[in-house]
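Record type: monomer structure entry
Structure origin: computed from sequence
Chain ID: A
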Amino acid sequence: MYQVDIAEAQEKLVELIEAALRGEEIAIAQDNQPVIKLVVIPKQTKPNRQAGSAKGMVWMSDDFDEPLEEFKEYMQ
């Protein structure tokens, strides 16, 4: 990782972005204190989904859609 001043970063932004895309980390400093780190955001891979992969893992009770005992008085 190397450090550049904000003024230099403004002048060389395209070059700094290209360096980050190559995997380098760049610290941008203000008053010789690093305040920002320029890094590439890794591509996020989608999980390998497959229809039916949870088959048998979920079950539903036979009385699933029956009214709850606590609400019978309201169901009249």
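Annotation 1: The chain is about 20% helix and 20% strand.
Annotation 2: Residues 13-21 form the longest helix (9 residues).
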